[in-house]
Amino acid sequence: MSQPFFNPFQDLIFDEHFCFLSGVLTTEKMTVFPNWLMDHFKFGDEKIEMMDKTKSYIYSDLKLPCSPEVKEAFDALDTKIKAAYKNGFEGMASLDQELLFQWTGRMVYGLLYYEMLYERDRLLKMGEEFGLSEHLKERFGRFHLMLQSIIEPISFVGKKPWSIVVFPLKYSADIFSYRDDAINLMFSFGVNGFGFIACLQDNGIIGEKQKELLDKMEGQVLHPIQFEELYARFHYSDYILQYKPEYKIENNDNGITIESLPIEKKGSKPIFGFWDEDIFAQLLANYWSVYGIEREDILKFQKPPLSFLENPYSKDFIKPETIDLPF
Fold first, then answer.
1. Taking the complete model, does pTM exceed 0.70, yes or no?
2. What are phi and psi of 128, to 5 degrees?
3. Which of 137, 275, 295, 304 suits a disulfide with 285, CB 3.0-4.6 Å?
4. Could you tell me the residue ranges of all domains in the chain?
């Protein structure tokens, strides 16, 4: 195509006058988190912290500059997600994963946008210049290009750039659980009825790594503590992934096609680094703190690490109904 698509990471353009997705001049804004979601679970007035914990915002105050076209596209997507949501697990599982990618991508990108604004302004006050490594510029730029598929002729062919898993989940009514890691482009979402985990730019390799476990849990309604452990496994797998996802991006008269290239081992370097049970236990303890479970409870001398997903000896899946913890 004659005109390249907008890439804010090329020149680090994060300005309220330019649409976050298309780059056109605008005076309109849209919320980072869908209004219906904030209204339904009543978290619009709650605070969310930035990654360094020194800055916080009110959820409903997080807004992205957007063109009318972009707002209309995300409103239409929200209508589809909301309709699927009402049908619980079956509704969400029936959605095309590209829609889930775009829906979660909006929130993850929105938080990433605010991280960029915060870091830029923080450095400006110190008289320093804001910058990103070439690796992050490329990674975030690719993610932004993929997100533009909601408004531009961008299609995904062959292997998809993400791992997204949807599963039945049991929570007390009206509880909404979500976690994100905007820098690593990860997101998890759980309510009564279903949960899903999304690694938005791993080329599917983390889903493949966890396939054996995912196959074991098929048809089971997960307990929330199992949901937290599953996300921890995805999150830590992303941390130890040793290869950069790469893509075949082709530009033609009909738009852009994006194909994820398989992540393959080169030489003696494995795809994933060493799984350190000590580091994983610390991560898991952060997720399990609501149950009063600490790192010392997960790792005990001469005992296998604590798991609520698999029996450490037989590796059988642990039935959710046998877990005597609140949900």
1. yes
2. -110, 160
3. 295
4. 29-322
- Render pLDDT for 187-207 as a digit per residue (tens, 0 to 9): 999 998 999 999 999 999 999
pLDDT at 106: 97
Longest dimension (CA), the chain: 64
φ/ψ of residue 195, rounded to 5: -145, 160
- Give 299-305's long-range contacts (Cβ < 8 A, gap of 24+): 305/277, 305/280, 305/281
Tell me if residue 278 falls in helix, strand or coil.
helix
What is the rounded CA–CA span in Å between residue 134 and residue 269? 23
Distance (Å, rounded) from C-alpha 237 to C-alpha 157? 25
CB 88 within 8 A of CB 152: no
CA distance 225 to 208: 22
Contacts of 81 (CB under 8 A, 6+ apart): 34, 95, 99, 103
Distance between CA atoms of residues 138 and 144, nearest Å = 10
> pLDDT tens digits, residue range 66-107?
999 999 999 999 999 999 999 999 999 999 999 999 999 999
pLDDT-flagged residues of the chain (< 70): 1-3
